[in-house]
Amino acid sequence: MAYPTIDKTYGFKPLNRLDGLPYAGAIRQIPVAAAYATAILNGDTVKVDTNGYIVAATTTDSGNIIGVLVGCSYVNSSGQPVQGQYYPAAQSTSTVLAFAYVVDDPSAIFKVCATVAAGTTPTAYSRAIVGSNVALVAGAGSTTTGDSAYGIDGSSANTTNTLPVRVVDVVPDTATGNANVAATTYYEFLVKFNTAQYNSTTGI
Questions:
Q1: 204 occurs within a structural domain
Q2: CB–CB of 187/127 below 8 Å?
Q3: Which residue among 59, 80, 103 closes a domain?
Q4: Is residue 139 within 8 Å of residue 115, measured between CB atoms?
Q5: What's the confidence (pLDDT) of residue 165?
Protein backbone atom coordinates (compact mmCIF):
# COMPACT_ATOMS: atom_id res chain seq x y z
CA MET A 1 0.00 0.00 0.00
CA ALA A 2 1.34 3.44 -0.93
CA TYR A 3 1.63 6.09 1.76
CA PRO A 4 1.68 9.86 1.20
CA THR A 5 5.07 11.45 0.76
CA ILE A 6 6.21 14.94 1.72
CA ASP A 7 8.74 16.68 -0.52
CA LYS A 8 9.18 19.91 1.48
CA THR A 9 7.97 21.83 4.49
CA TYR A 10 4.51 23.40 4.04
CA GLY A 11 3.81 25.59 7.05
CA PHE A 12 1.43 24.99 9.95
CA LYS A 13 -1.92 23.35 9.14
CA PRO A 14 -4.69 23.59 11.79
CA LEU A 15 -6.01 20.18 12.79
CA ASN A 16 -7.89 20.28 16.09
CA ARG A 17 -7.59 21.51 19.67
CA LEU A 18 -5.49 20.18 22.51
CA ASP A 19 -8.69 19.02 24.25
CA GLY A 20 -9.53 16.84 21.23
CA LEU A 21 -12.34 18.97 19.81
CA PRO A 22 -12.17 19.27 16.00
CA TYR A 23 -10.98 22.43 14.29
CA ALA A 24 -14.18 24.01 12.95
CA GLY A 25 -12.52 26.64 10.77
CA ALA A 26 -12.71 29.45 13.31
CA ILE A 27 -10.47 32.41 12.51
CA ARG A 28 -10.03 35.98 13.68
CA GLN A 29 -9.82 38.80 11.12
CA ILE A 30 -7.01 41.13 12.17
CA PRO A 31 -5.92 44.15 10.08
CA VAL A 32 -2.48 44.17 8.50
CA ALA A 33 -0.23 47.15 9.25
CA ALA A 34 -0.57 49.93 6.65
CA ALA A 35 1.98 49.67 3.81
CA TYR A 36 3.29 46.45 5.31
CA ALA A 37 5.82 45.35 2.71
CA THR A 38 6.37 41.70 3.63
CA ALA A 39 4.34 38.88 2.08
CA ILE A 40 2.76 36.50 4.63
CA LEU A 41 2.04 33.08 3.21
CA ASN A 42 -0.66 30.57 4.06
CA GLY A 43 0.73 28.59 7.00
CA ASP A 44 3.20 31.26 8.17
CA THR A 45 3.22 32.33 11.81
CA VAL A 46 2.12 35.86 12.68
CA LYS A 47 2.09 38.23 15.64
CA VAL A 48 0.36 41.46 16.65
CA ASP A 49 2.70 44.46 16.71
CA THR A 50 2.68 47.33 19.22
CA ASN A 51 0.15 49.22 17.05
CA GLY A 52 -2.32 46.34 17.09
CA TYR A 53 -1.73 45.11 13.53
CA ILE A 54 -0.69 41.74 12.13
CA VAL A 55 2.89 41.30 10.95
CA ALA A 56 5.00 38.23 10.19
CA ALA A 57 6.48 36.30 13.11
CA THR A 58 9.76 34.53 12.48
CA THR A 59 12.36 32.58 14.43
CA THR A 60 13.31 35.63 16.51
CA ASP A 61 9.74 36.08 17.78
CA SER A 62 9.73 33.09 20.09
CA GLY A 63 7.39 34.61 22.66
CA ASN A 64 5.19 36.67 20.34
CA ILE A 65 3.43 34.24 17.99
CA ILE A 66 -0.31 34.82 18.00
CA GLY A 67 -1.17 32.14 15.46
CA VAL A 68 -1.08 31.15 11.80
CA LEU A 69 -2.30 32.97 8.70
CA VAL A 70 -4.79 30.92 6.63
CA GLY A 71 -6.01 33.60 4.22
CA CYS A 72 -6.43 37.31 3.65
CA SER A 73 -8.76 39.94 2.20
CA TYR A 74 -7.50 43.09 0.54
CA VAL A 75 -8.17 45.56 -2.27
CA ASN A 76 -5.80 45.20 -5.22
CA SER A 77 -4.29 47.97 -7.35
CA SER A 78 -7.34 47.92 -9.65
CA GLY A 79 -9.64 48.63 -6.71
CA GLN A 80 -11.04 45.09 -6.70
CA PRO A 81 -11.73 43.28 -3.42
CA VAL A 82 -9.76 40.03 -3.24
CA GLN A 83 -10.19 36.99 -1.00
CA GLY A 84 -6.66 35.62 -1.13
CA GLN A 85 -4.83 32.54 0.07
CA TYR A 86 -2.05 34.75 1.42
CA TYR A 87 -1.10 38.38 1.98
CA PRO A 88 0.95 39.78 -0.93
CA ALA A 89 3.38 42.52 0.10
CA ALA A 90 2.22 46.15 0.27
CA GLN A 91 -1.55 45.57 -0.05
CA SER A 92 -2.55 47.44 3.09
CA THR A 93 -2.74 51.25 3.20
CA SER A 94 -3.81 53.82 5.75
CA THR A 95 -7.16 54.19 3.96
CA VAL A 96 -7.81 50.63 2.75
CA LEU A 97 -6.67 48.00 5.22
CA ALA A 98 -6.00 44.36 4.42
CA PHE A 99 -7.27 41.77 6.88
CA ALA A 100 -5.39 38.61 7.82
CA TYR A 101 -7.41 35.49 8.62
CA VAL A 102 -5.65 34.02 11.63
CA VAL A 103 -6.09 30.79 13.59
CA ASP A 104 -5.25 32.30 16.97
CA ASP A 105 -6.59 29.78 19.48
CA PRO A 106 -3.72 29.16 21.94
CA SER A 107 -4.94 25.56 22.29
CA ALA A 108 -4.96 24.87 18.55
CA ILE A 109 -3.02 21.83 17.33
CA PHE A 110 -1.21 22.08 14.00
CA LYS A 111 0.31 19.51 11.68
CA VAL A 112 3.80 20.49 10.55
CA CYS A 113 6.78 18.95 8.77
CA ALA A 114 10.10 18.54 10.56
CA THR A 115 13.38 19.68 9.03
CA VAL A 116 16.65 21.21 10.22
CA ALA A 117 17.60 24.84 10.84
CA ALA A 118 17.30 26.95 7.67
CA GLY A 119 16.07 23.92 5.70
CA THR A 120 12.90 22.96 3.82
CA THR A 121 13.78 19.31 3.13
CA PRO A 122 11.78 16.91 5.34
CA THR A 123 13.89 15.23 8.02
CA ALA A 124 12.69 12.23 10.04
CA TYR A 125 12.90 12.14 13.84
CA SER A 126 11.89 9.58 16.43
CA ARG A 127 9.09 9.80 18.99
CA ALA A 128 11.73 10.97 21.46
CA ILE A 129 11.00 14.61 20.51
CA VAL A 130 7.35 14.32 21.62
CA GLY A 131 6.89 16.49 24.70
CA SER A 132 9.92 18.62 23.85
CA ASN A 133 10.09 22.24 22.77
CA VAL A 134 11.54 22.93 19.32
CA ALA A 135 12.62 25.88 17.21
CA LEU A 136 10.63 27.36 14.36
CA VAL A 137 12.16 27.16 10.87
CA ALA A 138 11.04 30.09 8.68
CA GLY A 139 11.58 28.53 5.25
CA ALA A 140 11.03 30.64 2.14
CA GLY A 141 7.67 29.72 0.63
CA SER A 142 6.16 30.58 -2.75
CA THR A 143 4.28 33.76 -3.69
CA THR A 144 3.20 31.90 -6.83
CA THR A 145 1.18 29.33 -4.90
CA GLY A 146 0.84 31.36 -1.70
CA ASP A 147 2.03 28.38 0.31
CA SER A 148 4.30 28.59 3.34
CA ALA A 149 7.50 26.58 3.75
CA TYR A 150 7.70 26.96 7.54
CA GLY A 151 8.56 23.91 9.62
CA ILE A 152 10.11 22.83 12.90
CA ASP A 153 13.73 21.99 13.64
CA GLY A 154 13.56 18.53 15.18
CA SER A 155 17.27 18.63 16.01
CA SER A 156 16.63 21.54 18.41
CA ALA A 157 14.35 19.46 20.68
CA ASN A 158 15.01 20.44 24.27
CA THR A 159 13.45 21.51 27.55
CA THR A 160 14.31 25.18 26.84
CA ASN A 161 11.22 27.20 27.77
CA THR A 162 11.90 29.95 25.21
CA LEU A 163 11.56 27.61 22.24
CA PRO A 164 8.21 28.52 20.63
CA VAL A 165 6.76 25.15 19.61
CA ARG A 166 5.73 22.15 21.76
CA VAL A 167 5.63 18.74 20.06
CA VAL A 168 2.43 16.93 21.07
CA ASP A 169 2.47 13.76 18.94
CA VAL A 170 3.64 12.12 15.72
CA VAL A 171 1.77 11.77 12.40
CA PRO A 172 1.96 8.04 11.55
CA ASP A 173 0.70 8.39 7.96
CA THR A 174 4.04 9.66 6.67
CA ALA A 175 6.35 7.68 8.93
CA THR A 176 9.41 6.06 7.44
CA GLY A 177 8.41 2.64 6.11
CA ASN A 178 4.99 1.19 6.77
CA ALA A 179 3.14 3.22 9.39
CA ASN A 180 1.31 0.12 10.60
CA VAL A 181 4.45 -1.89 11.32
CA ALA A 182 6.60 -0.48 14.12
CA ALA A 183 7.62 2.79 12.48
CA THR A 184 10.50 4.40 14.35
CA THR A 185 10.92 7.81 12.70
CA TYR A 186 8.46 10.40 11.47
CA TYR A 187 8.47 13.38 9.11
CA GLU A 188 5.37 15.11 10.41
CA PHE A 189 4.35 16.04 13.94
CA LEU A 190 1.42 17.53 15.81
CA VAL A 191 2.36 20.70 17.67
CA LYS A 192 1.03 23.70 19.55
CA PHE A 193 2.59 27.07 20.24
CA ASN A 194 4.40 26.85 23.52
CA THR A 195 4.76 30.62 23.89
CA ALA A 196 1.52 31.95 22.33
CA GLN A 197 1.20 35.73 22.49
CA TYR A 198 -2.23 35.57 24.18
CA ASN A 199 -0.76 33.51 27.01
CA SER A 200 1.93 36.02 27.87
CA THR A 201 1.12 38.01 31.02
CA THR A 202 3.49 40.77 29.92
CA GLY A 203 1.43 42.06 26.98
CA ILE A 204 2.79 43.74 23.87
A1: no
A2: no
A3: 103
A4: yes
A5: 95
**CA-closest candidate to residue 53, choices 69, 73, 30:** 30
Give pLDDT, residue 180.
55
Q: Is residue 191 part of a domain?
A: yes
Identify whether 5 is part of a domain: no
Q: How far apart are CA 31 and CA 157, in angstroms?
A: 34
The distance of Cα 73 from the centroid of its chain, to the nearest Å, equals: 19
56 belongs to a structural domain: yes
Residue 24: what residue type?
Answer: A
| Cα 49 to Cα 39: distance, rounded to the nearest angstrom | 16
Residue 10 half-sphere exposure, CB side, CA atoms within 13 Å? 14
pLDDT single digits (tens) 9-18? 999 999 999 9
In this structure, are strands 133-137 and 165-170 parallel, antiparallel, or unpaired? antiparallel
- CB count in 10 Å sphere of residue 181: 7
Q: Cα angle vertex 51, ends 48, 55, to 5°?
A: 35
Contact 67, 81 (CB under 8 A): no
> Cα(140)–Cα(158) distance, rounded to whole angstroms?
25
pTM: 0.92
| 3-state secondary structure (DSSP) of residue 112 | strand
